[in-house]
């Protein structure tokens, strides 16, 4: 049975308590990757990936996770599945689950005990299973879990989580459970950058918003399969390690400085792989993961073109490839406002066995009646499951008739977003003041969005044109 109660103990800075009415779920090596934490009105939106090792048993079918702000934790007894009706989910903000379907682990599309579970999440969630370094365990990863709580993102946000499993097909019987897992989801944070020198260099920072300070251990390892998922069983080459102290004297920040990692930093294929920063310590009951992207290698697919054009309630997406290597196909992904990226469909590679040196055309139509601007990108997947992303295209909202979308307009601070529809050839953009003077000019634009900054107060005409197309003009107001 797949025991996963650890799922959220993953994050506890102050340590997590362990209580179980049913048989304990057997877990080890919890970890968390903070994707982002951003203010949203008076709330804080936090997005995380959760990791854990789980002892595998063929009888396990479901694993469930419920999350509360610690201040409103329900402390359910798990004699039965928690629901809104029995009070078990009172105050909860997230419910996430996964189901074993044969050999596959699939994100749950609903919560069978209660289809009104508050904060149920399925769209945008990904789940992965692989062999673990711990004997008799499997490694599990749940990506893009979203937590929204009152209060700012500049204070540690405390959560409590319960995890339970069921062998029943409809999750009505609890096999094992753990509860009261306390964690802080937004502290500490790890960021990093890799430089494409030869040999490669990198740097990383660890920061805390805990005013009491924090001392941690860290190690830097190579992401050996390049899949962006940390697994100690696979990612087992350590290139650096040490101890970091963050306190008032260093503004609660540890900076590694620029480092290289011989012999791997000049040795292929290692120098073309990403890095992980793994943070642990006696004050943490979980590991914290920071991902350092490696953008120094050619992508397996070269995009010759990529366009997205609104046609009433549909957005038509067209792209072409100049060559493909071991390409499985393309996920079409969409994002609106501050939402997460969502997969809207998949188009298989037309290349023979995923390999081609010829121009290949693709298309996809997405039903989209969102009133606000949408972003689109293509996530190319190779035959090994590795993902590479295209540039981003922005599309006007449904019902917006303009070909040149400018926002905000008026601009209060001189920063303006410009979205141009249907960029097929290099485009010229000019900002012209009321005296007819060209204040700023952009040439050979190939992406359909740019951001203008530092525009002085005044009234302007923004003009865009490309070969063979009529110029488009928009009046723009800037007031600072």
Main features:
480 residues, mainly beta, Immunoglobulin-like, 4 domains, 8-stranded mixed β-sheet, 5-stranded antiparallel β-sheet, 31 strands, disordered N terminus
Q: What is the residue-averaged pLDDT?
A: 84
Span between N and C termini?
61 Å
Shape label: globular
Strand order of the largest sheet: 6-7-2-1-16-15-12-13
Provide a count of the helices. 0
Content of β-strand:
over 45%
How would you characterize the largest beta sheet?
8 strands, mixed
Overall structural class, as computed from helix and strand content, comes to mainly beta
Percent helix = under 10%
Uncertain residue segments: 1-21
Multimeric organization: single chain
Q: Radius of gyration over alpha carbons?
A: 25 Å
Number of strands: 31
Q: How many domains make up the 3D coordinates?
A: 4
Question: Could you explain how this protein is built, in words?
Answer:
- The chain is mainly β and 480 residues long.
- It has strands at residues 27-40, 43-55, 62-69, 94-101, 104-107, 126-131, 137-150, 158-166, 176-184, 189-195, 201-207, 214-222, 238-246, 253-255, 275-280, 287-292, 301-311, 314-324, 327-336, 342-348, 360-367, 374-382, 387-389, 393-395, 404-407, 416-420, 427-433, 438-445, 449-452, 458-466, 472-478.
- A hairpin with a 5-residue loop joins strand 6 and strand 7.
- The strands form seven sheets. It has an eight-stranded mixed sheet, with no helix packed on it. The protein has a five-stranded antiparallel sheet with strand order 5-4-3-8-9, with no helix packed on it. Strands 19, 20, 22, 23 and 24 form a five-stranded antiparallel sheet that branches.
- The chain contains no helices and 31 strands.
